[in-house]
Write a structure and sequence with these properties.
Number of domains: 2
Strand order of the largest sheet: 1-2-3
Shape: elongated
Structural class: alpha+beta
CATH topology of the largest domain: Ribosomal protein L11, N-terminal domain
Order of helices and strands: EHHEEHEHHE
Low-confidence stretches: none
CATH architecture of the largest domain: 2-Layer Sandwich
CATH superfamily of the largest domain: Ribosomal protein L11/L12, N-terminal domain
Distance between the termini: 58 Å
């Protein structure tokens, strides 16, 4: 039996623990894969992150089977959650809030598996850059 070949690879940002079949159908409907099974497996895998936005990479193979790989929530989502709000409507002109160094480190540690570095200081600089682009000040 020849090895399975991937035919589609899609990254979706879904709500952890409760993915909407509509969102899955928009991107994966034409592949012929079982959407209900993808939803069931995604909800099962992301149940510990219920309510977060949890990106998932869906790889569909030529025999209509699939593989799921969860990623960490987007940095902007984690920063907004830490501030209990949103970014500035005019970054660079208005400040949306301030992140403490401890909060910055916590977000960087959570994002570390998906970043292209293994150094926590470099990860903190990456997260700080995202915060600045959202109009969020970084203390320290």
């Amino acid at each position: 039996m020849p090895p399975k070949r991937p035919t589609h690879k899609v990254t979706l940002q879904l709500t952890g623990g409760s993915a909407a079949v509509v969102d899955l159908g928009k991107m994966l409907g034409q592949t012929g894969v079982n959407l209900v099974e993808i939803k069931r497996r995604y909800d099962e895998m992301s149940s510990s992150q219920r309510g977060d936005i949890v990106p998932v990479e869906v790889t569909v193979f030529d025999d209509r089977s699939f593989a799921l790989r969860l990623k960490t929530p987007p940095t902007a989502f984690l920063i907004r959650r830490a501030l209990d709000g949103k970014g500035s409507s005019r970054p660079g002109h208005e400040t949306a809030g301030t992140l403490s160094t401890e909060t910055l480190r916590a977000i960087a540690l959570r994002k570390l598996p998906d970043l292209n570095t293994t150094d926590i200081d470099a990860a903190m600089r990456t997260v700080a850059g995202t915060a600045r682009s959202m109009g969020v000040m970084v203390a320290g």
